[in-house]
Amino acid sequence: MPKKILQDIKKVKYEIKEELPKDLPRSKIDRPESRLFSHPTFYNPEPIDKNSDGPKYTLWIVALISVVFLFFAVSFLFSGAKILVTPKTYDFDLSDSFSASRDSDDGNLSFSLVSIAGEESKIVQVEEEKDVSIKAEGTVIIYNTFSSSPQTLNIDTRLEGSNGKIYKTKEKVVVPGAGGEDKPGSIEVGIYGAEAGAEYNSEPLDFKIYGFKGTSKYDKFYARSKGNIAGGLTGKLHQVPDDERDTLVKELEVVLKERLLKNIIEQIPTGFALFEGAVFLEVENKDFNFTSSDINVPVVVKGTLYGFLFNEKKLTKKIVEANVSNYDGSDVFISNLRDLDFSFISKDIVSFKDIKNINFSLSGNAKIVWSIDTVKLASDLLGKNKKEFSEVLSQYSNIASADMNIKPAWKNSFPDKSKDIKIIVNYPQ
What we know:
Elements: H1 5-8, H2 54-77, E1 80-87, E2 89-102, E3 110-125, E4 129-144, E5 151-153, E6 158-161, E7 166-169, E8 173-175, E9 185-196, E10 206-209, E11 221-225, E12 233-239, H3 242-265, E13 272-283, E14 291-292, E15 296-311, H4 312-323, E16 332-334, E17 341-344, E18 357-370, H5 374-381, H6 389-393, E19 399-407, E20 421-425
Parallel strand pairs: 1-20, 2-3
Antiparallel strand pairs: 1-19, 2-18, 3-15, 4-9, 4-11, 4-12, 5-8, 6-7, 6-10, 7-9, 10-11, 12-14, 13-15, 16-18, 17-18
């Protein structure tokens, strides 16, 4: 019979009868299958004492060190020095006279002349008609090619136009001498027709000086009109009454001057001063009689605003040299320079346009302020100890006082880099 192999295999049962240590914690042998790993030959770590404070103290120490490190890191991140400086100043009452030449570059005081033209108008209703007789008006430029000597022409000097009409000058003028064959002397002057009427109205004309006829000057002095000659008329027209006209003209002059002045101020170059008293409006048609064929009469004021500009540094230097004893040439400025009162010493200015030299006065309370070279001061303080701050300041005669603040607070020296030193100068407004 075939053998039953499986039945011949005897069952063998292995048992581990080695006794476990009696002092082994019961928590380790709750289950039979865990006894093998409870044998002394296997690693059995000691239980952690949950009442121990060691890890907690370690955690607090690490946190404290981190906070201290963060504090120092932030402190150095915002480290630096801040210095508030008050410059030296000097107040005094100014009352001085000065001379200046136009656009001069010889080192003396000079001025620049700026100008801007414009007009303002208003419509006035006039019901009444009047018999009017108005002379045409215009402007001419008179030239002198006769000699280098100036020529005086009295008021009402007669000019003969190329249209055969006689016109007269409105004021006395002095025509400058010629500067050479190609540089005639010239001057601008207003003219009006010798008689009233529209026949004196004209487009630009050429003129000869009637009084020089028959002399060698006749061909050497001549004039040309600047623009049209207009306004001449006669007949029944609506005309603005004289008293009302004068009031309206003054009002329009104020409006025109304010508007033109605003435009000039916007164009003033940096470093130049324009005094309130150094601005003048020259009205071109002040004597016009405003008329119209209908009841709506236009009142128009045309004019040119002239302003005298001065280089602030050059003018300040003149003022300081005259009023500060032992001035050493330091860089200074006058904080309220433009608030000083300006006035011409000579009032009889014939034409602002052609002016070459002026005499003027400045008056008022002036404040001289010494400028501070903040770049040099910061450089002189690099790496210096706090105790040396006063010693460095003593080298600056233009500083009245200064306060410092160094961060972090425990640092005893200034930063080693200029960018970390901030200097604020308390200049007067």
